[in-house]
Design a protein that fits this description.
Number of helices: 24
Helix content: over 70%
CATH topology of the domain at 1-92: Leucine-rich Repeat Variant
Strand content: under 5%
Structural class: mainly alpha
Oligomer: single chain
CATH architecture of the domain at 1-92: Alpha Horseshoe
Number of strands: 0
CATH class of the domain at 1-92: Mainly Alpha
Largest sheet: none
CATH superfamily of the domain at 1-92: Leucine-rich Repeat Variant
Order of helices and strands: HHHHHHHHHHHHHHHHHHHHHHHH
Shape: elongated
Length: 340
C-alpha cells in the first residue's frame, strides 16, 4: 500500500498535465477525511513539496493543489512542514503574480495563509521577520487588497479572509509593532474597515484593534494618533441603539456626534461588542488613555450602551471598564474644572 501511494505521489511531478491532474484529484480526495490526511502525513516528504510547486502551475492544477493544502494544513505538524517549505512565500507570490487574474485561486491561497498563520513560525514567515529590507511587505500587500476589495463586489469575498490573517498576526508582538508603525499606518487602513457590513471583516478588524491594544502601555501615542478612526470603531458598537441628546453629542467629535444623534441598527454579534470593550479597557488602563476617552464623552456612551445590553459576558466587560472609568471620575472632574 505504501509503495502504491508513493507511486501515486510521484505522478504529481509528471511532465504530463493530464497525469498530474489525475493524481492530484485522488490526493485532494484523500485530504477530505481525517484518515486520508493521516495516510498522507506518513509520507509528507513526497506529498507537500510537489503540491507547493503545483501552486505555480496552471489554474487547472493550482486550484486543486491549493484545496488539498488547505485541508492538510489543518494538521499542525503538516502546517509546520509547509512553513519550512516556504509555502507562505509561495502563496503570497502566486496571489500577486498569477492569482490576481484568478479570484478563486487567490481566495484559496488566502485561506491557506489563515491556517499557516495560526503558527508562530507562519506569522514570522508572513512578516518576513529579520529581513530589514522586506519586513512587513507581504502583510502590507494583503492589507491593501483587503481594504481595496471592500468597495468592489467582485473581489470582496476574495480577500475577506485576510480579516483572520491580521488577527493571527496581531497576536505576535512583532506583528503588532508592524501594524502600529506610523509609517504606512497599516492599522489606520484596517480600522477604516470597522463599519463594513461583512461580519467576517468587522470581527477581524475589531479583533485586530483589541490585540494591538495589549501594547497600549508602549504604543498609546501611536494608537491615539488614529483617534479620528479609533473612537468610532470602538465606541459605536457599544453605544446602544438610542439617539443621544444634544447635550451628550456636543461633547463628542463630529464623527461620533453625527452617528449617535439618531437611532441605529445595533451590532448583533456580542463578540464584536466584547472585543471593543476589552480594547477600550486596555486603553483606559493608561492615564493618557482614560483622559482621551473622557475627552470624547466615552463614559456617557458606555453608560447608555450598558443600559441596552442583554448579553451577560458583554455586560461583564462593560462593568470592568465602567469601574475603571468611574474610579477616575473625581480626578477627571477636578481636572476639567481647572481647565475652565
Amino acid at each position: 500500500m505504501a509503495d502504491e501511494l508513493e507511486e501515486l505521489l510521484g505522478f504529481l511531478s509528471s511532465p504530463s498535465t493530464q497525469v498530474k491532474k489525475a493524481a492530484l484529484d485522488i490526493v485532494r480526495g484523500l485530504t477530505g477525511s481525517d484518515g486520508g490526511i493521516e495516510t498522507l502525513a506518513s509520507c509528507s516528504d513526497f506529498v507537500l513539496p510537489p503540491l507547493c510547486r503545483l501552486l505555480r502551475d496552471v489554474s487547472e492544477l493550482a486550484v486543486p493543489a491549493a484545496e488539498a493544502l488547505i485541508n492538510l494544513s489543518q494538521n499542525p505538524t503538516l502546517a509546520e512542514k509547509l512553513v519550512s517549505l516556504r509555502a507562505v512565500d509561495t502563496a503570497v507570490e502566486v496571489i500577486y503574480k498569477q492569482g490576481g487574474s484568478d479570484g478563486r485561486l487567490s481566495k484559496l491561497l488566502v485561506m491557506l495563509l489563515v491556517n499557516l498563520t495560526q503558527l508562530d513560525s507562519g506569522i514570522s514567515s508572513l512578516l518576513q521577520v529579520g529581513d530589514d529590507k522586506f519586513e512587513g511587505l507581504f502583510l502590507s500587500k494583503l492589507v491593501r487588497s483587503f481594504c481595496r476589495s471592500s468597495s468592489s463586489d467582485s473581489t470582496e469575498s476574495t480577500y475577506e479572509h485576510v480579516a483572520s490573517i491580521i488577527v493571527n498576526v496581531s497576536k505576535m508582538e512583532a506583528g503588532r509593532r508592524i501594524l502600529l508603525q506610523p509609517k504606512g499606518s497599516l492599522l489606520k487602513q484596517i480600522i477604516r474597515q470597522s463599519d463594513s457590513a461583512n461580519p467576517l471583516r468587522k470581527k477581524g478588524v475589531l479583533g485586530t484593534i483589541r490585540n494591538c491594544c495589549f501594547d497600549a502601555d508602549r504604543q498609546l501615542q501611536n494608537l491615539l494618533m488614529l483617534s479620528e478612526f479609533l473612537w468610532p470603531a470602538l465606541l459605536l458598537p457599544v453605544a446602544g441603539k438610542k439617539s443621544y441628546s444634544e447635550q451628550d453629542t456636543a461633547k463628542m467629535p463630529l464623527e461620533l456626534a453625527n452617528a449617535l444623534s439618531h437611532e441605529r441598527e445595533p451590532v448583533d454579534d456580542p463578540e464584536i461588542r466584547k472585543q471593543a470593550l476589552e480594547a477600550l479597557y486596555l486603553i483606559a488602563l493608561q492615564d493618557a488613555g482614560r483622559s482621551a476617552l473622557w475627552s470624547v464623552n466615552g463614559p456617557r456612551i458606555l453608560q447608555l450602551g450598558y443600559e441596552d445590553e442583554e448579553d451577560p459576558k458583554v455586560m461583564e466587560a462593560y462593568e470592568l471598564i465602567g469601574s475603571l472609568v468611574v474610579s477616575n471620575a473625581g480626578f477627571q472632574e477636578q481636572s476639567d474644572s481647572m481647565k475652565e
